[in-house]
Specification:
The protein has 289 residues and is mainly alpha-helical. It has helices spanning 2-16, 24-30, 34-43, 51-82, 84-103, 113-136, 152-169, 176-182, 186-194, 203-230, 232-250, 260-285. The longest helix has 32 residues, at 51-82. It is globular and about 55 Å long.
């Protein structure tokens, strides 16, 4: 029964990898498995005598995560194809709703030079990644495609973005999908994952994303946990900066076939969902020193 519960929790965690603003780390906190997750991932290759314990936790969680990612990818791949502006408005709502949750993660969030600098750095990192994406995409049209991600430059770029997405996945207030969206490879990766239901496998995009994301999770899990324990407010201001920079990037510039009312409803839905899901984990984090 415990393993079945872990599979369902893994599914919820997997869905957060598709939806920006529903941070994977916050979902782990909400489900009460953040600390064992960080412990297992951060010490898997260090405390080898505990490998059975770690495997019993990570394997069912990983199975559920894969199922959750697949189901969510099928849904949002269709939404992005049919209603791109409304889907982005929904994502912006999710991100805006995550701001109060991050703000309440530590009891002392007063503004200081160091914290303002961290927030500014977060914004610069997001805009820098967006600028790199635009520069590398120059020869591939208006957006990245599955075909482009199969080329050497696309594979390398996908690996870099996926590595950073892995780090975001274990950072409270952030999530991997946000990095994929800002990096411009979110939609083609959804297409690759969604194609699995038809037993069509795009090997390079899927393997590159999976391997580099896992590497990012392993590399960043201990670093992020240490940073938050040493300077929580500075870390969370950096997260806020990245969220604000992402909102600027994702705000729909053109409505297309979507009406203004639909965009506002999508934004309100995302905002309400993020505010609702953000209550409990933010309270849990207030106990941090």
């Amino acid at each position: 029964m415990k393993r079945i519960v872990l599979i369902f929790k893994g599914m919820a965690y997997g869905i957060t990898h598709i939806l920006p603003g529903l941070g994977g780390a916050i979902a782990l906190i909400l489900m009460g498995i953040y600390e064992p997750f960080v412990d297992a991932v951060g010490n898997l290759f260090i405390q080898r005598h505990r490998w059975r314990e770690f495997a019993a936790f990570l394997i069912p969680l990983g199975i559920g995560m894969v199922l959750g990612i697949l189901l969510a990818a099928i849904v949002f791949e269709r939404l992005l194809a049919d209603h791109p502006a409304a889907t982005n408005a929904f994502f912006v709502g999710l991100l805006a709703g995550a701001v109060p949750s991050v703000w309440r993660m530590h009891r002392d969030m007063r503004l200081s030079k160091a914290r303002l600098g961290a927030s500014s750095l977060g914004i610069i990192l997001v805009l820098g990644l967006r600028g790199l994406e635009a520069y590398l995409r120059a020869g591939h049209g208006q957006k990245w495609t599955l075909e482009a991600l199969n080329e050497p430059m696309g594979v390398a770029y996908n690996g870099l973005v996926s590595f950073l997405a892995g780090g975001a996945a274990v950072t409270p207030g952030l999530d991997g999908s946000l990095v994929l969206i800002v990096g411009g490879i979110y939609e083609p990766l959804l297409q690759a994952i969604s194609a699995l239901k038809n037993l069509v496998i795009y090997w390079w995009p899927i393997l590159t994303t999976a391997i580099c994301t896992l590497i990012g999770i392993f590399v960043f899990s201990k670093l992020i946990d240490t940073l938050i324990k040493r300077s929580p407010s500075v870390a969370y201001y950096g997260v806020l900066g990245m969220i604000l920079g992402s909102i600027y990037v994702l705000v729909p510039r053109q409505r297309g076939a979507d009406s203004l009312i639909l965009l506002l409803l999508a934004f309100a839905l995302g905002l309400g969902l993020a505010l609702w899901l953000g209550k409990e984990p933010s309270n849990a984090q207030q106990s941090q020193p």
